[in-house]
Amino acid sequence: MTKLSFGAALAAAALLTAAPAVAQSNPRVGGAAMYANKTIVENAVNSKDHTTLVAAVKAAGLVETLSGPGPFTVFAPTNAAFAKLPAGTVDTLVKPENKQALTGILTYHVVAGAMSARQITDAIKAGGGTATLTTVQGEPLTARLSGKSVILTDAKGGTSRVTIADVRQSNGVIHVVDTVLMPAA
User: Fold this and answer.
1) Rounded distance, CA 50 to CA 46, Å?
2) Cβ neighbours around 184 below 10 Å, total
3) Is residue 182 a part of any domain in this protein?
4) Does the reported pTM lie above 0.90?
5) Which ranges of the chain would DSSP assign to H, the alpha helix?
6) Can you tell which superkingdom this protein's organism belongs to (predicted)?
7) Which of 27-31, 34-38, 149-153 has the lowest average pLDDT?
8) Domain span including residue 140
C-alpha cells in the first residue's frame, strides 16, 4: 500500500490559469460547464447534481476554505449519493448543533494537493493494487481499480465509484463520486 503526500511542485503543476474558456478536457457536471479558472465552490454551485453538497458545505462553514488557494482534491458526492443515506440523515447533519459531524464527513472527501485520476491510478498500480489517500479530516481512504474505474473504500468499509474524473478547478480538482464516504469517527 502506498501512502500519498503531495508537495508544492505537484500542486503548482495541477493549477490551471487558463483563459476564461472551459478547458478542452473539463467535463460538464450536473449539466453545467466547469471552468478551470474558477474555484471548487464557484463551479459546484452551478451543478444541478451537487445542490445537497453545496448546502452541506455552506452549513459546515467550509465555503471560504474551499474557495481558498488550496490546492485540493475533492471527491464530490452527487445529490443521488446523499439520497442513499438513511432517511433524515442530511436534514440532521445540516443542523447547527451537528456542524462538527458534518464538517468531519465533508473534510473526509478532501485530500490536500491536486491529484488527477492518472496520478491516483499510477499510485494504485505502484502500491500493488491499492493506494492510501490521507484526507484533510485525518483518516485514510483506500483507492483501488475496478476495470478502469477508481473505487474508494471508506473507514467503515463502504465504497464509492468515481463517475466523473478530472474536473479541473483554479484551486484543485474534483472527482464526482456516487456514494457519500464515511469516516470512522
Assistant:
1) 8
2) 12
3) no
4) no
5) 8-14, 40-44, 51-60, 63-67, 79-83, 89-93, 99-107, 117-126
6) Bacteria
7) 27-31
8) 2-177
